[in-house]
């Protein structure tokens, strides 16, 4: 049986340094010539973009609200099978899930039998780290917390107290990260800033150097060796034989995409990516996918590209099959209002105006039934529609409470603020049936 380092990076709370440590390790190990496979626990589609940059491989979401354990195990095995090292970045606190601990990073680690490395912000604590680590390690059934990296620790003398705390609980203390303002992860209103890949690449390299200086990486790799997953007997992304031509918007304005969704689209046929900002025409296609992103940061470029606006308008009006999520839905609207109150014309097939004025965060898991399918996804945006349109389905939260977000249908176009996690390739087409 082959063993490779495989682990989940968790924390006692958000903001503890999971992303910093994850990116640093991915970049560092990739620089050493190792094949690093990144994953993200939960629905975050922004961290995965930075994982890809640091590891040089696509990052895949593993979300136990979206998918059952069988699919999670198959997805993990498919992507981790060819890797030398597998790193899963957890979401929020270790036991924070959609419903209590259900769907949490801790549950994911249990399902996949992964060892856990904890990142803890220890700026304002010393030996109190012991009971916190003890709780993280022993609260969950069969959770294998093997190591800890302490963050925001200024001095070696402070770290000695923390080392003692880790030893008391039986957890390896793998080092500490001192405060470093130059390595604060840049953020935008939805999370990590996706601007300027060259700057982000430089950031990842700096974090890798920082982690190498302060973390015992060799011990971390040794204590997280785990049996390599067995490839599933059936390929979850096997070609369906549909032979469709699929156009996917992908640029700095539309980039919030689950890798699983892209793989399912590829199983339906040939996927071609295009830029609503720079391309002037839409290539002939059987299916158009407009994912979410940052259209509000590129309103002028999108609005003045009249060739693309007209091409998509014509495609939709002629009955072209279209799936649009969040930013993609905003793009199909009549106009988008900026924070300053300026209106920018968009495609104009959905009779609504979206606005960035008075932004209010809408956030959470979503689920609903449509065309005989039980669908799940995630809502995360600050914009809102100022036009009341009828919804073709009632959408609910993870707790089953009705929420006001709409599912809009126009001809063969389906649009919503919800970022869907598609259950299968066939489901994608079933959604758009008349």
Give an account of the 3D structure:
- This protein has about 425 residues and is α/β, with parallel strands linked by helices.
- It contains 13 helices and 27 strands.
- It has helices spanning about 20-30, 45-55, 70-80, 105-110, 130-140, 155-170, 195-215, 215-225, 260-270, 300-305, 305-315, 325-330, 425-430; strands at about 5-10, 35-40, 60, 85-90, 115-120, 145-150, 170-175, 185-190, 190, 225, 245-250, 255, 270-275, 285-290, 290-295, 320-325, 335, 345, 350-355, 360-370, 375-380, 385, 395, 400-405, 405-410, 415, 420.
- The strands form 7 sheets. Strands 1, 2, 3, 4, 5, 6, 7 and 10 form an 8-stranded mixed β-sheet that branches.
- It is globular.
- Mean pLDDT is about 95; it is low at about 190-195.
List the helices and strands and how they pair.
Layout lengths: L2 E9 L6 H14 L4 E6 L5 H9 L4 E3 L6 H12 L4 E5 L15 H8 L3 E6 L7 H10 L6 E7 L4 H14 L2 E6 L9 E2 L2 E2 L4 H18 L2 H7 L1 E3 L16 E6 L4 E3 L2 H10 E6 L12 E4 L1 E2 L5 H6 L1 H12 L3 E5 L1 H6 E5 L5 E3 L4 E6 L6 E9 L2 E9 L2 E2 L9 E2 L5 E2 L3 E4 L2 E4 L2 E3 L3 H7 L3
Parallel strand pairs: 1-4, 1-5, 2-3, 2-4, 5-6, 6-7, 11-13, 11-14, 14-16, 16-26, 17-19
Antiparallel strand pairs: 1-10, 8-9, 12-15, 17-18, 19-22, 20-21, 21-27, 23-24, 25-26
Helix pairs in contact: 1-2, 1-7, 5-6
